Amino acid sequence: MVKPFVPQLAYFEPSALEYPLGQKLFEKFSDMGIEIRKTTSHNQIRDLPGENHFQKYRIAKLTLVVGIRKTLKFDTSKPSAEYAIPFATGCMGHCHYCYLQTTMGAKPYIRTYVNVDEIFDAAEDYMIERAPEITRFEASCTSDIVGVDHLTHTLKKAIEYFGKSEHGRLRFVTKFAHVDHLLDADHQGKTRFRFSINDDYVIKYFEPGTSRLKERIEAAVKVAEADYPLGFIIAPIYLHEGWKDGYHEMFERLEAALPKFARKNLTFEMIQHRFTKPAKRVIEQNYPMTKLELDESKRKWKWGRYGIGKYVYTDEEQADIKETLGGYLKKYFPEAKIEYFT
Does the reported pTM lie above 0.85? Predict the structure, then answer.
């Protein structure tokens, strides 16, 4: 079982200590005996331990930077939500395929932001602008927020904030099972709690440092019993030898465990594996022994957002994925809503 994340090293930006959460984390980490360093800005961190890229990368994944979120202009987050709400950046997991590999670049440490009320105020402005329409906020675009929340409780505060909101809804997704502190949050049904799931092969070989499928399903049952709207993201859907059996078993296990009442308002999001040339370079540098198939000649090239091309499965393979997984969904969760299949 994967233990909850504990940083090996913590950096504090001076302004973070002007906020109650920053002070609280400083005291907590001091009491835990975690090495603490100060930095004028996360951009100034140059002295991460390690003798080579491999070591520095892994130590960075065990490093937490506590600071403030200066940019309070939210990015859009289609198709999941209207906006991404920024509580943290970076992830302690080691998923080989993750897009954060390229977006985080040379700074894969985890950052948490302590000016939470200012972030809420910015969210309020977005909600007022769109009212009376509902505005959805995605809290896991740049991190796995659950993976760090047992330390910060920022997500729990956000769940309760949106619980009181008239026009706002919160969404996030996680690969971690450390959800117990969130079960008593007063969510008022306004937060959709989603789990990223995959078959055993993908989790074993490409998702080290995250909770196993069994643990994620057990956590999902707890979340359902706490009356949260529940959802699952199957991502990346990855074609490997025996993939049809692997995904069939995944659906079987989920169906066997999930209470009947949790299926009335259940959502699924499906995302096929894809990669870019820059991502391939970074993945092979960070995980040189990966089994991830990154052969461009086996893929179809497709224009992506911002003019960056990506390699996706061929049309025939995509049709097979949709027919196979769509059939499993129809069989095991006929009442569920498929939000998108991309």
Answer: yes
